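Cross-posted from the bioinformatics board.
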Amino acid sequence: MPQAQTQQFGPVDYRDEDAIEFPFGLPAFEEEHRFLAIERPQTKPLVYLQSLGRADLCFIALPLLVVDPTYKLAVSAEDLRILGLTDFLEQGTQPEIGKDLEALAIMSVTNSRPTANLLAPVLVRKSSLVRTGLQAIRGDNRYSHEQSWGGRV
Amino acid sequence: MLVIRRRVGESFRIGEDIEIQILESTGGQVKIGIRAPRDVSVLRTEVWVTANQNKMAASVAVAESLTDTIVRQFFVSTPNSSSSSD
């Protein structure tokens, strides 16, 4: 079983099929192509998006729908192609979170308050042999890159 | 912000090396051509914003304070596990 080196948790065992391939990395981290989504029972629903290439690179994320249950995706044609969700291109519809893909919001801190990047959710395609992921940056200005978040679950 | 009015086909320059040309304008969308030296980074603003946001999100200080704050938020609403947040 492969082992991920992480700064936060030390060595973590994972299954190869759980690794998420980011063909283009994430903006500012374009060279990091493989990540692991780590969930721990004591911090659920928090997701640690840990780079498999850099032990010190780990994003803290929340499921997009936990941050905003009414969130409406607007995935570009280019991103749908990368995710291999071309059916939606032909239909002109958007994939469904939870059914077609998983969606995470990367969390940060702005003025000492937690914020979520709703401008650019991380999308991971479900039900494929290789788990493909990308950060889907919206072209509209419907959502903020630093949406303050203080909700309870 | 400096505002310049240009027609399709017209262009303007920023400094000595950068030229911006308006190539096409249809239905509220504008196609723009940029000629700039290789070392000048040209990014759509939302990509630039996300890159900066990612850099900040990945910093150790943010990670530590986030885990604390978010975990505490969740534990506030789940009394059974509230003791493990401190």
